[in-house]
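## Example pair
The file below holds two records. Each record gives the amino-acid sequence first, followed by its structure token line.
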Amino acid sequence: MLAATEIYQEEILVSASRLPENAATLPLSWARVNKDELALTGHVHITEAMQRVAGAWISRGNGQESLPSLRSPVLTGAGSCGAFFMAADGISLRAPGFCNINQLFDANTEQAAAIEVIKGPATSLYGSNALHGVINILSAAPAVENDLSVEAGPYDYYRAKYAYGSSGDTHGLSLRANATTNGGYKDDSGYDQQKLTFRHDFTGTEWDISSVLNYSNLNQETAGFIKGYKAYADEDLKRQNPNPEAYRDAWSVLAHSRASRELGDNHQLILTPYLRANDMEFLMHFLPWQPVEENGHRSLGFQGAIYSELGQWRWINGLDADYTDGWLKEVQADGFSPNQPAGVHYDYQVDATMAAAFSQFEWALNKLELSAGLRYEYSRYDYDNKTGDGPACAPEATACRFYRPADRKDNFNNWSLNAGGSYTLGENHQTYLRYANGFRAPQATELYRLQAGQQVADLDSEELDNLEVGLRGVFSDKLNYDLSLFYMTKDDVIFQDANRQNISGASTKHQGLEFNLGYRFNDNWYVNGVGSVARHRYDSRINLLGSSGDIKGNDIDTAPRHFGSARLGWEFNPESVAELEWVYMGSYYLEPDNKHSYDGHTLMNLRVSSQFSSHWRGTLRLTNLLDEDYAERADFGFGDYRYFVGQPLGAYVEVGYSFGR
């Protein structure tokens, strides 16, 4: 069952270098949600699992929609998703330049081997988008299993999960699939979702090859914001859906093969080609004129690296490449005004190329370990406008919202650097110091989906500098701790100004403390918790859309200064556990002027899982145990408070059967 404490000396992390390595001595801030924690959490939405990670908040929208936050505010806007590198087995879920804020629903997190998180800019193996951090979902390695589970919950929620695996001397396979239907808490809402992960491992005399196919499909009837101050606590409003016509349909495929072989005694070659495809269509219900957007892309990519072990040195040198054919179309069925007319607003195609070279080394001597890395990345966009150049409105429009730039090419050159060191204090404690620089190139939507007559978006890549110091370790195999103090500055931030034009040049500042603590009282009882105390502020005088004046020094909206969670667990027999979870969300501002805020909330959840026999197991999950009124996400826009409502007390029952025991 669940380990009560994570003994960091025994913890293995894959995401930093794409190979398993001892996480204790890594001079960076990381977290890992393992398969046992994922199984017990049984998350309906990814936010429930990510509550176990300090500094991470995946703000839940309706259904499977989300807005990510990782050592950052919850970022919104056309390219805000570009601040996070979200991956499956180290491969970005979406192509560089084509991120989507909801892209975590593409990954089979429900049946992953683990979710690994790197906070702040990652190592040189990661490029554009690894700005505030990395969320990497690891596929399960083949093992002998044949398990089926079914689950039921409130509001016509049903889910089935199946896992099959086999493992031999040279071949192993793993198949994990799940299907969910959810009637939705809100009126005229709900979704159907299917996910599949297939993995085949081959071990040969020279080559080892691991091939993975990920597939996901989502058909969602989306519920929009409800409006009005604290509307989430109004019994007459909280289940209403102001946008019963809203929907989101999305599917994705990501396939890769990872081939590795030894080159002599000291070197290993790893080659990873991959294919990526996805399509999405949704009603933009959050805009009064409600257009429909269709977007998608097809990608062919490659990762290659040579790992060298040279005595006290470990050296990684590699190349990454990605070619993507992407497109976007926005159409409005009915005219809203002369400035938001019916018809095609945007229709474009972008051929994007990314190429990068990187080098990362580690040097260890006794209790000291040093590391450093350098990456160069080139990005090029070839934009082709498929509709008329210029405004999408008739000549009589006075302030046309939509502008289609003429065909053009844009390219970006970026460097990133990281350097750090860790020192072992005694046998069970490590301290580290790290500097890292990260970047993200502008996203295609920021460059080519222009508004208010802007003919060209002359944008620079965003850059972030991170300095952090950390301390982690274990006392007497009972208490473990992981503390990280960070200071980050971000420059050339892309934003939309008061004239609705996309420009670069803003600066923000981020500083705080993240902690992870765990304590085992005895063989049966444990407690663990994570938390973040941080401030995220505007650090320049900018004429930001939605603000009324100088906002330098103000908190960035949707950036709680403190939040976290804690769990008390009782392992009442060797394969059974009960866990009571406390989730705390502090107050936060809703707009740049810091005049409107959300008070925050506190929730309790209870989970009990038990193995009844060699074949049968069961899990009971009670969410929002105290039936609190709260908002999953609060916002202020178009002159009103807006909320995604949190669900009341809910009971989920899962029964599983193992055919192979």
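Second record, same layout:
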Amino acid sequence: MRFVWAVAAFVLAALMIGAGIAQRTVFQGADTETAAVSIEDETPYVLVEGDVLNSRPGAQTLRAQGEGTIFAAYGRTADLEAWLSDTAYTRVSVDEEGALEADEVTPSLAVTDESTQSATPAPEETASAEGEATDDGATSDAVRSPVGSDLWLDEFQQEDVLIAPLQLPEDMSVLVAADGAAPAPADITVSWPIANATPWAGPLIVAGGVMMAVGVFLYILAIRHLRRSRGPRRKGLPVPVTEPIDLAVEGKDKGVISAGGRRALTGGRRRLIVVPAVAVSALLFAGCSSEAWPQFAPSPTPSPSASVIVPEGQQAPAVTEAQADRIWTRIAETAAAADEAADETLASTRMDGAVLAARSTNYALRAAIGDYPAPAALPAEPLTLVLPQAYDEWPRSIVGVVDDPGSNTSSIMMLTQQDQWSPYRLTYLASLEAATELPVVAPAYIGAVQPAPDSPFLLMPPAQLAEAYADILNNGEQSQYFDMFDAASDQFRVSVAGDRQKRLDEFNQTGASTGELTFQAAPGAYEPRALATLQSGAIVAVNIDEIDTVKPTNPDAVIKLDNNPTVRTLSGAEQSSTGFTTTYTDQLFFYVPGQGSTEKIRLLGYASDILNAKVIP
């Protein structure tokens, strides 16, 4: 009977192991589903819509095959369509029956010869020596490389065959191209994983291994029982009385056969039988992946976080945090290269407004004055705060804060993208005040709206802020706007007042009898930029010019610049009988509370640089 049970265990083990292996081999279906795109039109770009990528559940893998370098990028569908608005492209979508279809789309934005001369043409982006895109004002018919656009959330480049693993929502799409001039690859497929896990394959194989070990054990017991019983015995002759054996007798006369050897032999055979069975089970167990086992672990519970209510009708944020970090890295790298070479053209590809104006002046002074210092390097560190504008059109803005570990300082900046073809440029940059408390802002995935320049919902409209603060610099506590600003935290106003008084005292020691020195602050040439905070306020960046005027009061006197190479270089004159004006440009960031708030307007950060110097006509 023991042999019967052993054989039954062997059979059951074979069935269980075979069933487990079959689930992982012959009975296991395909692990991916693939849909091919049939593209007949030769266009430079192919847009694979989000509904194509999400027509099947699971992560997506896009595969494009062609000759040469293949480019792919993904981003918000609205951004990709805006970037392609002036060129023909192929759109891949899903029809009513669920099949993929490709249609050619003609340009929706007509660009005429006259419009190409406007301030925001569709530029041709070419790679500069530093790897940055540059604008040359080309028309939409010119070649525009898709590589390096700030609109992309991520991009890929591979030779001949491009494979891009994706997991995109329906509001995002993928752009496929070659170089923007040659036709895009026509061989494009999208694949999705198919759930073909076999959670009982592993348990069946392991249980079969255990059952095989049980069968081996039963078989050994059956053999042992058979040897001990040796079948039925007949009654024989009487056995003579056994005489004692002298154990001291050696050699062949010993008369004893040791049973220890047989026991050892039997035990050795048992081990030889059991060890292979366990080894086979271990090998089968090791060959099973996680898909061959049931998953009983509970889903992780997300930790609660502060909820932020998105205002009804608010649009999507312009960038993500990762996208903003990549944009800032590109700006910092370009600024470093431009500062080293004193190249204003290169700087203009990533800077604009007051920042570019200050840089241009610095480059001119360094070319004429050998020991003139270069601008402070931009910290190429990840942004510690990102507040993108929630806006689908252009221009778009981003407020960012970056820490500089080397100097233990922080900088606040405003980045602006003028149109869908332009890169983001640094338009305002300032150092944060010591111990500055930034206002509470929305997370980057929500973004913020841009208050109107004349917004009545703020304590002071952004368009009026520069004029009001310039009046405070001119009149101090006598200004009508003084009580609206937090004077206790404003170190910039104190430093300006101290610097003016120091220079005035020095001038009066030698020139008070023949000339006069006056100071005047006024709104600068660059428009303010603002983004709303969560407390109904706004972060506002403004530009103010500080103009120092020195002129003779005696008709026979002249103003000489013997000890002022900076003004001499910028004005192009060594002396003047009419005098000189020197302009400094200030970049200032304020927090402006909402109407009805008990807070005052606070200065967050500032920067001041010389802008120009001129002879008074």
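Notes on the second record: The mean pLDDT is 83. The radius of gyration is 41 Å.
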